[in-house]
Specification:
About 25% of the residues lie in helices and about 35% in strands. By secondary structure, it is α+β, with helices and mostly antiparallel strands. Strand 4 and strand 5 (about 50-55) form a beta hairpin. Helix 1 packs across helix 2.
């Protein structure tokens, strides 16, 4: 782990993504993921963008999703975005494999809500199978996580 990360898994995770070719977009970039007038950290590699927030995890109660405070090992994946003209070419799968590998190496837990984004987004069932194939497990009706924390000896 680098000295810049100060031992924080979430910082190490971002450093690993940068080493794997991901670039962090400037908040003024129009490709940055925005929801409810909030801009989120967005990284891009080839034609795939991911939006992340650290120190958070997801919780679900009575069908409502809550973004909760987590530890430095918790990162919430808010969005995986591919423009329509670049979909169905395997770029998102390849990109997400690198994201999952970085999370495992950094010993982070990735949280996500299974939900289509925008017009033409993949249906929930397709997304759930895709994330499961990447190693995510269900934690409720709409939440999945990739549990990357080290196993107790």
């Amino acid at each position: 782990m680098s000295a810049a990360g100060g031992g924080r898994p979430d910082v190490h995770f971002i450093e690993l993504l940068h080493a794997a070719g991901w670039k962090t977009l400037d908040f003024e970039d129009p490709r940055v993921y925005r929801r409810a007038n909030v801009s989120y950290a967005t990284l891009v590699r080839q034609e795939v963008r991911i939006a992340l927030t650290s120190l958070t995890l997801l919780s679900e109660r009575r069908g409502t999703i809550f973004l909760c405070h987590g530890s430095t090992a918790d990162v919430t994946l808010l969005a995986v975005l591919v423009d329509p003209e670049h979909r169905r070419k395997g770029q998102a799968s390849e990109a997400m494999e690198s994201v999952c590998e970085a999370a495992r190496t950094a010993q982070c837990t990735l949280w996500l809500e299974v939900s289509p984004i925008g017009k033409g987004g993949a249906p929930v069932g397709v997304l759930r199978r895709w994330y499961k194939g990447l190693g995510f497990e269900s934690c409720g009706r709409r939440i999945m996580k990739l549990g990357c924390a080290p196993q107790a000896a």
